[in-house]
Structure formats: C-alpha cells, structure tokens
Amino acid sequence: MTPPRVLLLTGTLPSESDVGGLILRDLVRLYPPGRLCCCGLLNSVAARPSVDPGWLPTLALRAPRGLLARRRGGLAERAVTHARFRIARRLHRPNLVRRVVAFAREHQVELVWAVLNQPVTYGVAPAVADCLNVPLVVTVWDPPDSVCLNANLDRFSTALAVRDFERALGRASRCGVISEAMQREYEARYECHTVVMRHAVRADECTRPARCPNSQGPFTIGFCGSLYAVREFRALLAALDAAGWQIAGRPVRLRMVSAAVSGRIGPNAWVEWLGWRPQREVIRILSESDVNYLPYWFDMQRRNAVRLCFPSKLTTYLAAGRPVLFHGPDDAAPAELMRRHPIGVCCHSLAGAGLVAALSQSVSLDLYARAAEAIERLVASEFNAANLPGRLAQLLGASEPDE
Q: What is the pLDDT of residues 289-345, one digit of tens each?
C-alpha cells in the first residue's frame, strides 16, 4: 500500500531541542522522504529553523500572538488578553489557515496529521483539512485543559480552546494517544479509532537492567528532563534535608540532567546539575543511578493530565535499566503501569517520611531483581522502537488497523 502524502501540522518542529521534537523526529524518520512535509505554528520563528531530518520540507509560521495570550495581573488585564484571544481566533487564524493550505497544495497533500499540543493547532487543523478536503488524523500528548493551563489562558479562552479541540477530535478519523487511559476515555468520548503511540527506545540505546544497587559510593538519585512538578520536587529536597541526605547509611547524591533546577538546596545537599545532554548520554548517566526519580502533580488542577498523560522521561528511565521512584497520585497513568509491571516503588504522598521510606525500599535486592525483569519485559514489548513503524502506519492509514 502506497503511503499517503502527509502534512505534519505541529506546534513543535521535529528536532532534538525538546522532548516533543525528539518524539516527532523519531517518527518522521520512519516515513518515506518525499511523502511528508511539515508546517510548524511556533511561538517565534528563526530565519532557518532547526529541523531533523534535514530532508523534511518545512514551513515555519509564527502563531498569532493573541492565541498565545498569557494571563497577567488582575481582572482588567485578563479581560484584555481574552479579547486578544477572541480577535486572533476570529480574524488572524483564517490567514494562517490560507498559508498552510497553500503550502499543503504545493506538496500535493492527501492527509493532514496534526499534533494537538498548542491551542493554535486545535482550530487550524480541522480548518486546513476541510479546505483541502482530505482526512485528518491527530496526535494528543496532553489534554486541552492542561495545555491551556501551561499557557496561562483565562477560563473563557480555555473554554473556546477546548471547543476547538473537541471539534478537531470530532473531525479526526484516527487519534494517536499517549496512554491506555487516554485511549479508553477518548474512544468512549469521541468515538474515533485510537493508536497508543509513546516515545520508545531502540535496543542499541538501552542499558542492561541492573539486578542489584551500587555497592559502593553515594546513593544516587537520577532525574532527567523538564522539572514541571516543582512542589513534588521540593518535597523530595525537604525529605532529604530531614534525613540528613543519608539513605541506608549512604550519603545521597541527586544528579539532575535538566535545563534548570528549582527549590531550596540545604547545607548538607549534594546536587549535581549536568544541564542538557544528548539522549544517549542521558541514558548512560541515568544507568549509573541507584534509582531514578519521577515526580507528578498532586495538584487537582492537573488531574486530567495526571490520569491521561504519560511522561516521556519514564521511557528514558526504562532505557537506563534502573528502578523508578514514582512520586505522585495513585490514579496517575505511570502508577497504573507500575501496578502491572513492578519497575520500582511508588510514593503517593508529599510527606517526607513516605519519601524516605520509598527511597530506603528502593535499595532492596528483591525489588531490584523484580524491577530488572519487569524493565526487560517492557523494553522488549510496549516500549520497543521496533513497534513504531507499524503504529505510525496505522495512524496515518498506510496499513489496516490490528484486529
């Protein structure tokens, strides 16, 4: 079956500059050159946007500023930003659609694949597909209320954005989702065929799972990626302060492979901040940990995201082959996975005593043995990059869905 000519419409360009770009880069590399083009609706546009792979024809457009409105100050300023959002949605978005449609026609597009990771793509995606009279498929990493919360949109702008999101899902014939929980909910709510597509790892990137903790040196807690669960991370720092930065009689080292850190660092703390590193190096660094830390929000405003999303750093942790300390609500998607596959230990509390107990449990030989077996199974099955070509083909209509 000849794969369709596809327009990838996204708020994140394929590259290694961020997690979303990394996921798209790996997917785009699976598609035949000459049958895929990309349009990025971006916060800012460089003269030569960085795109990987280099063969990908790309149009980078700056999204209307009103659709990127930030809530500031009191009621009056929120009213102004909401007015700008409505004006941009009504007046500026049609011009954006025309430019995307012209680019798509130039490349003889037969299908629109939209990544719904920005409010601007919610409305543009179905409008472009309608103008081209072609099918629309979408990819969802985060529910719209969480995306709008990240953008600091007021509640009235959020309501409009959610309406656009639901129209896009209603127009879509297939939807790539990030978790089984999102699959169940979106199939029931939007009645569209879904394909679970998360970041996966290649066998040559993985470290063989360790079956026992490090016997010498400090007890090392690894962390990588964006630090969005700030309150949870600060609870970890406070718990380690209370424990004197000692676990099981060993000094604790917190190793951060992240662009930034947040929180009060106590006088006894041992924190190594390594900044941004390429993916392979991140996996190597994390493979030297005793446990890798995955915080998720306890904030009720983030409840949908916690239930439905799947943090990509967990895939990286699996590739590193070390147990995971999940720190978040018990109804979170990672907690659901860990109940089925014992890849580490969970702490469902912000209390310091619970965190210290979970860290102490993570050095258990029995836990390490169970985690190693579970990690091997997951990397060989659900998180195996060899599955991605088939799932991408299902999403884009280049193969028949699995029975």
A: 999 999 999 998 999 999 999 999 999 999 999 999 999 999 999 999 999 999 999
Region 232-255 average pLDDT: 93
What domains appear along the chain, each with residue ranges and CATH number? 6-200+384-396 (3.40.50.2000), 204-380 (3.40.50.2000)
345-354: long-range contacts (C-beta < 8 A, 24 or more apart)?
345/291, 350/231, 350/232, 350/235, 350/298, 351/235, 352/235, 352/238, 352/239, 352/242, 352/243, 353/239
**Residues 6 or more apart whose Cβ sits within 8 Å of residue 95:** none
What is residue 118's three-state secondary structure? coil
Cβ(179)–Cβ(310) under 8 Å? yes
Q: What is the pTM of this model?
A: 0.89
pLDDT of residue 251 exceeding 90, the answer is yes
Give the residue among 122, 179, 159 at the shortest CA–CA distance from 312.
179
pLDDT per residue as tens digits for the range 21-32: 889 999 999 999
Bridge pairing between strands 250-257 and 246-247: antiparallel
* Angle in degrees, 0-180, between the axes of helices 75-87 and 155-171, rounded to the nearest 10: 30
3-class SS string, 62-78: ECCHHHHCCCCCCHHHH
- The answer to whether 58 touches 46, Cβ cutoff 8 Å, is no
Q: What angle is formed at CA 341 by the lines to CA 337 and CA 344, rounded to 5 degrees?
A: 90
Strands 324-327 and 291-295: parallel
Pairing of strands 111-115, 291-295: unpaired
Taking the C-alpha atoms of residue 282 and residue 279, their distance in angstroms, rounded to an integer, is 5
Single-letter residue type at 54 = G
Percentage with pLDDT > 70 across the chain: 91
Residue with tokens 């424990």: 243
- Given a contact cutoff of 8 angstroms between Cβ atoms, the answer to whether 139 and 396 are in contact is no
In three-state secondary structure terms, 372 is helix
DSSP 15: S
Classify the C-alpha dihedral 359-361-364-369 as positive or negative.
negative
- In sequence order, what E strands does 201-303 have? 219-224, 246-247, 250-257, 271-273, 291-295
Residue 242: which pLDDT band, with cuts at 50, 70 and 90?
A: very high
Q: What angle do CA 375, 380, 385 make, to 5 degrees?
A: 115
